[in-house]
Write a structure and sequence with these properties.
The protein is α+β, with helices and mostly antiparallel strands and 567 residues long. The chain is built from 15 helices and 16 strands. It has a six-stranded antiparallel sheet with strand order 8-7-6-11-10-9, sandwiched between helices. Helix 4 runs antiparallel to helix 7, helix 8 packs antiparallel against helix 10 and helix 14 packs antiparallel against helix 15. It is elongated, with a radius of gyration of 34 Å. 33% of the residues are buried.
Length: 567
């Protein structure tokens, strides 16, 4: 991205001095006031506060009741921002939407950037009138603001106290506009540098989170959350290719609960076609764009839809929509967001490769454990059983024979359980049946290896038939998270898992509830709760909820994690 050079203060001061040469004694007497105004305008570097300060200073300098700055958009056809001074908050709320600069006097100043002074703006043929609730205005002064020789916007003054704007006012405001151009140029450079720094820090945070070895769904949630924050958007949305074509929403970050998770944007959408071809799509108003073939778009306005592309491979897409009526994305924001999406895609590919390596190492380790259990443990248990059976036949004491017989039976049960564990260790993810009950059992069996014991489980209702695929997928992920937390933090010796598909949620809908209770140490004060937040986010995205309660410990210890969502 090209960064403009800093304005030359010496050149600007020279121009300002020339503009003051030959002025009358009355105007010269106001020079101290002008210099104080210029000093005030040049204070600070934050762009919006600089615009506020320019408006206030110009109003004081020209003794005007109202002042405003209209920032011209990148296309030079309208206004991207409009900053006011003197308009009460209540009046601003009544007016509602701010002017877009495409008509009236504001539009005339954009098309022909030159000073306009009017004794009665309502009588000018270029005037388009005021919206309801707008305060009455008659006298008007408009002066262009240039930054690096280009039109940045226009400074508007209205309602001169005690009469009309004079030649002196025009000279003073022109000089102030020159200084405002310098201040705005510096503020824009500072803002651009800060903006680039934020996006770079966000890319580093995403890369670090993705390569930390966390869950794949959590990694996508990190991308969505960082993109929303950096783009100052209403939501961050990650989409991945769906099985039947199109793009499926797999992660959503939003200030308010969203029902968008799991929605598939159809393949016939022109936007999907362009994204899968690796092209970025920028939408002025998603709610009114006919290309947006989804009900999700109705909630949003300006939007960036960016391909997650790395090495010629499109992994999915990233959307950062703003609310309806919000400002458009600038060219700099589009460039930075596109670079962020490319970096996130690269990090996703690296994380995927890392997870594949870790998964392969786990499978190799599980295969070794299964071989050792089969070749060593089972053979020794079988030999021990045969020895006990031989001793049982030789014993003449009935009590001894009964005791040995029970021991042999226990060995047989133990051998069967070990064979079941061997089968679970050797089973690949592609071999798992699609039923929710089976997937839950598989997670429980997988957790038994690091836990050292098998959690108890119970199913209520028609779990496989009643629970939908999306809810089931998130329930299994929530169960995995809860069991992982119990293993890493709870120091539990007993865990009970209940999946209840007969519950009624608070809003009256039928739902499924997962409960994972343990007898561990509970949640310490000030302890990490990122895993619990992940559970809550999953539930809320489906219209459900998640919370914690007391566990199954004998002394009020332990924790019960509850996760529920509509069927």
């Amino acid at each position: 991205m090209t960064v403009p050079e800093a304005p030359d203060p010496l050149e600007a001061a020279t121009q300002a001095t020339r503009s003051l040469q030959g002025l009358s004694t009355e105007l010269t007497a106001r020079v101290p006031q002008l210099l104080e105004a210029m000093r005030s305008v040049g204070t600070g570097l934050e762009l919006h506060s600089t615009l506020d300060r320019i408006c206030e200073t110009a109003a004081e300098l020209a003794d005007a009741r109202y002042a405003a700055i209209g920032v011209v958009d990148d296309e030079g056809e309208g206004l991207s921002d409009f900053v006011t001074h003197g308009v009460p908050d209540e009046a601003a709320r009544r007016i509602g939407r701010r002017p877009d600069g495409r008509a009236g006097l504001l539009g005339a100043l954009i098309r022909e950037p030159q000073t306009i002074r009017l004794a009665d703006l309502t009588a000018d043929p270029r005037a388009a009138g005021f919206p309801p609730g707008h305060p009455p205005m008659r006298t008007f002064l408009g002066v262009p603001i240039r930054v690096q020789g280009e039109i940045f916007g226009n400074l508007y003054l209205a309602e001169k106290r005690g009469g009309e704007f004079t030649d002196y006012d025009v000279h003073m405001v022109r000089v102030l506009a020159t200084e405002a151009g310098i201040a705005i140029g510096n503020a824009r450079l500072y803002e651009a540098a800060r903006q680039r720094e934020r996006w770079i820090d966000g890319s580093v945070a995403v890369t670090t989170a993705l390569l930390s070895g966390g869950d794949a769904d959590d990694a996508l949630a990190v991308v969505a959350e960082q993109a929303r924050r950096l783009a100052d958007a209403a939501a961050g949305i990650v989409l991945l290719p769906a099985e039947d074509g199109g793009l499926e929403i797999v992660a959503v970050s939003s200030d308010r609960p969203s029902q968008a998770l799991g929605i598939v944007i159809p393949p016939e959408s022109p936007v999907v076609e362009r994204l899968l071809e690796g092209e970025a799509v920028f939408v002025t108003d998603a709610s009114a764009d006919p290309r947006m073939l989804s009900r999700v778009a109705a909630e949003y306005g300006p939007s960036m839809l960016l391909p997650l592309q790395s090495g010629g491979r499109v992994l999915g897409a990233l959307a950062t929509p703003r609310s309806r009526g919000d400002r458009q994305f600038t060219e700099a924001e589009r460039t930075l967001a596109t670079q962020f999406a490319s970096q996130a895609a690269l990090a996703l590919m690296m994380a995927e490769a890392q997870r594949d390596r870790e998964r392969l190492a786990v499978y190799e380790d599980r295969d070794r454990i299964a071989r050792d259990l089969h070749d060593l443990v089972i053979q020794r248990l079988f030999a021990t059983g045969m020895m006990l059976e031989s001793a049982q036949r030789k014993s003449v004491v009935p009590a001894v024979r009964d005791g040995v017989g029970k021991a042999v039976d226990e060995l047989d049960v133990t051998i069967q359980e070990i064979r079941t564990a061997i089968f679970a260790l050797q089973q690949g993810p592609a071999e798992a049946p699609s039923g929710l009950r089976t997937r839950v059992l598989r997670e429980i069996n997988m957790a038994a290896v690091p836990l050292g014991f098998k959690p108890a489980h119970r199913f209520l209702g028609a779990v496989d038939a009643a629970v939908g695929e999306l809810t089931g997928k998130n329930l299994v992920a929530a169960l995995r998270e809860a069991l992982s937390n119990a293993f890493r933090h709870a120091e539990a010796t007993r865990i009970e898992v209940v999946v209840d598909a007969t519950v009624t949620l608070d809003d009256g809908k039928q739902g499924v509830r997962l409960s994972v209770a343990d007898d561990g140490v509970g949640i310490p004060e000030g302890g990490r709760r990122s895993g619990l937040r992940n559970l809550a986010r999953r539930a809320e995205s489906l219209g459900g909820a998640s919370w914690c309660g007391p566990g199954i410990g004998e002394h009020a210890g332990g924790t019960t994690v509850v996760w529920q969502a509509p069927l």
